[in-house]
Design a protein that fits this description.
Elements: E1 2-5, H1 10-20, H2 27-48, E2 61-66, E3 71-76, H3 83-92, H4 98-105, H5 113-119, E4 131-139, E5 147-151, E6 156-161, E7 168-175, H6 185-196, E8 203-207, E9 227-228, H7 245-256, E10 264-270, E11 276-282, E12 295-300, E13 303-307, E14 321-325, H8 335-339, H9 342-365, H10 367-387, H11 389-395, E15 400-402, E16 408-410, H12 411-418, E17 425-430, H13 437-445, E18 451-452, H14 456-468, E19 474-478, H15 494-508, E20 514-518, E21 527-531, H16 533-546, E22 556-561, H17 565-572, H18 577-594, H19 599-618
Parallel strand pairs: 2-8, 12-14, 17-18, 17-19, 20-22
Antiparallel strand pairs: 1-6, 2-3, 3-7, 4-5, 4-7, 5-6, 8-9, 10-11, 11-14, 12-13, 15-16, 21-22
Helix pairs in contact: 2-6, 9-10, 9-11, 10-11, 10-14, 15-18, 18-19
Bound molecules: adenosine-5'-diphosphate (ADP).
């Protein structure tokens, strides 16, 4: 037996590793399994290059929990290690660069530890996070005798001959008191499912259970067969033309446990300029609030790295669900590395471009279908446009708007049909189809379409469009924002307007309200209330972010129909109680056409209406 000590700085390092990884202990499973996969891959490489004699044993990794002995063992039938190799790879090389690691990262947060560990070739040592003792039994593919390495703290070790007879390596962890849960088969399996679900080598889990005493006259029960937990050929590794719709749907159900069918998916398959494979699904989003539940799993050569890494997957795409495999990414990468890496940025841009292109091709080739799921995906697409102008530029041809009559139009289609040759193209919209039904009807009567913008993101989105498309001068106005297209040009008397303004300000008890007098296209309409668009948008946004205290008063205008007999009558009327009642009633009716009255005002309105009706029969 020989003894040794792992490396000069090890005493400093082990406590740091343990402390760092406290929050993310279960990554030791991934580290040991990926070492096993690497060892098997190396062996396969030797065989295919005629440098090792192949045998029939199929590649496999076994993970065996033994509650009685308190051990968790990882066994692979890979390349194995000789004594020299263990000393070299496990005991010496492991800590190369480790002093850097200490000085550079000690100050950083615990959560990043998991990334840093692998970065410095310390993967194997993560075993000590959960163990009192670790034993390696390894038999090299060469003739070298099997060897056992034992260490209790990851620093001092002993080496002796091992009784292992088969090629490969068994790593036995004597699980410490605190981490006994890792001896629980269920815990082991779910940890493996999380990190190793798509590893390229079959992984089997089993448990050494005490055999049950057979009942009288019965055969002793056989121990259950080990179960394979992983899918070694995940769908994203296949070529898109080898996969059916059913394959994609089944994979989605299995990986995301989502039994709603996805709307559609994108199979990413790039070899140049970087290697990237994956499948992104557009989930059926029920409302804007469940939308944040997407999850994109990042893999490196089928090894799970992390969920939702926003440096690789643009943030707005995190509403999607999917798997992305980037073999060229180091398995363990720290966030700060990703943020500064040009390669990662290019990859993110590539993914964004693919998503936009897919949307455009769906729109171009299957417009009907696309329109059907537009209601589900539009908040996500709009959010993406605001977040990333490149995405907007690319997806622009596929941006559509639903009109209140249920059609879907592009901005160009809307403008061509509804806008005159005016310099500024005005797009009329409603934010609440029911409440604004009267205003919508007025526009429709004039032959103008109204689009529906009724989600939280729309306010920001139209401001974004107005800004981005400023050369083309597009402006969005809610149906109650201005009376321009509902009125005719024509001179009106300023004196008459002033008089009416006085009457209405008094009747409405609102000194701020502005009164306009215009001939209406619709003869029957007496008045309407408009609210300045920009002012309203600002108020809505600030009250959303700043709470109710931030609510600013609306800038409202009462527009009166100069052609209407009642308005003509008011122009000549005395300023008395009777006139005031008429004005109050007109103002309330105009308000009701755009939104329900607030409670107090409603009470007054009902009372006044009752009185007016009574007066009618008294006449
Ligand atoms: P890394 O895998 O990041 O290089 P590790 O500490 O996990 O760092 O492993 C160090 C080295 O030990 C590996 O590169 C490999 O050469 C060797 N090794 C570890 N586990 C095994 C194994 N199961 N079979 C063969 N060699 C192994």
């Amino acid at each position: 037996m020989s003894k040794g000590i792992v490396s000069i700085n090890a005493e400093n390092i082990m406590p740091v590793i343990k402390q760092w990884l406290y929050s993310d202990k279960d990554i030791f499973v991934r580290e040991l399994i990926s070492n096993g996969c690497d060892a098997i891959r190396k062996y396969r490489w030797l065989v295919s290059n005629n440098q090792a004699e192949g045998d029939d044993a199929p590649d496999r990794i076994d993970v065996i929990a033994d509650r009685e002995k308190g051990t968790l063992t990882f066994i692979d039938n890979g390349i194995g290690m000789t004594e020299e190799e263990i000393v070299k790879y496990i005991a010496q090389v492991a800590f190369s660069g480790a002093s850097d690691f200490i000085t550079k990262y000690t100050e950083q947060s615990k959560g990043e530890g998991a990334g840093i560990i692998g970065h410095f070739g310390l993967g194997f040592y993560s075993a000590f996070m959960v163990s009192d003792k670790v034993v390696i039994d390894s038999k090299s593919y060469t003739d070298a005798p099997a060897v056992r390495w034992t260490s209790e703290d990851g620093m001092e070790y002993e080496i002796e001959p091992s009784d292992r007879t088969e090629r490969g390596t068994a790593i036995t962890l004597y699980i410490d008191e605190e981490d006994k849960d890792f001896l629980n088969l269920w815990t082991v399996r779910s940890t493996l499912e999380k990190h190793c679900a798509f590893m390229p080598v079959p992984i089997f889990v089993s448990e050494v259970a005490k055999p049950e005493e057979p009942k009288e006259g019965e055969e002793p029960k056989k121990a259950p067969e080990p179960q394979q937990i992983n899918d070694t050929h995940p769908l994203w590794m296949k070529r898109p033309n080898e996969c059916t719709d059913e394959d994609y749907k089944a994979f989605y159900r299995k990986v995301f446990n989502d039994f709603e069918e996805p709307l559609f998916w994108i199979h990413l398959n790039a070899e140049y300029p970087f290697n990237l494979k994956g499948i992104l699904y557009f989930p059926r989003i029920k409302n804007e609030f469940t939308a944040s539940e997407g999850v994109i799993k990042l893999y490196s050569n089928q090894v799970f790295v992390a969920d939702n890494i926003k440096e690789v997957i643009p943030e707005f795409l995190l509403l999607l669900k999917g798997c992305v495999d980037c073999p060229d990414l180091p398995l363990n990468v720290s966030r700060s590395f990703l943020q500064n890496d040009g390669y990662v940025k290019k990859m993110a841009a590539y993914i964004t471009r693919k998503v936009a292109d897919r949307l455009v091709s769906e729109f171009n080739t299957k417009r009907e279908d696309y329109q059907r799921y537009w209601d589900d995906i539009h908040p996500f697409v709009k959010y993406g446009c605001i977040k990333d102008e490149k995405f907007y530029e690319r997806v622009k041809p596929a941006l559509i708007y639903k009109t209140t009559s249920g059609e879907y139009v592009t901005l160009d289609e809307y403008i061509n049909k509804n806008c005159d040759t005016d310099e500024t193209k005005t797009v009329y919209y409603a934010s609440d189809e029911k409440r604004q039904a009267q205003m919508i009807r007025l526009y429709n009567d004039q032959g103008k379409d109204v689009i529906l913008l009724d989600t939280l993101i729309d306010n920001n989105f139209i401001s974004f469009l107005e800004y981005t498309e400023r050369d083309g001068k597009v402006s969005f106005k809610r149906v109650d924002a201005a009376a321009d297209s509902l009125t005719e040009a024509g001179e009106v008397s300023e004196d008459a307007r002033k008089k009416l303004e006085g009457l209405f300000r008094k009747a409405m008890a609102d000194e701020q309200v502005e009164v306009q007098l215009k001939p209406f296209k619709d003869d029957g309409l007496i008045a309407m209330i408009t609210v300045d668009e920009q002012n309203r948008r600002f108020t809505e946004m600030s009250s959303r972010w700043g709470g109710p205290d931030m609510k600013l008063p609306e800038k409202r205008t009462l527009v009166l129909n100069d052609k209407h007999p009642l308005v003509k009558w008011l122009q000549a009327a005395e300023d008395d109680a009777h006139t005031e009642t008429v004005c109050a009633q007109v103002a309330d009716l105009a308000e009701m056409a755009r939104q329900p009255l607030v409670a107090d005002r409603m009470v007054d309105f009902l009372k006044r209406s009752n009185e007016l009706l009574t007066q009618l029969i008294e006449k």
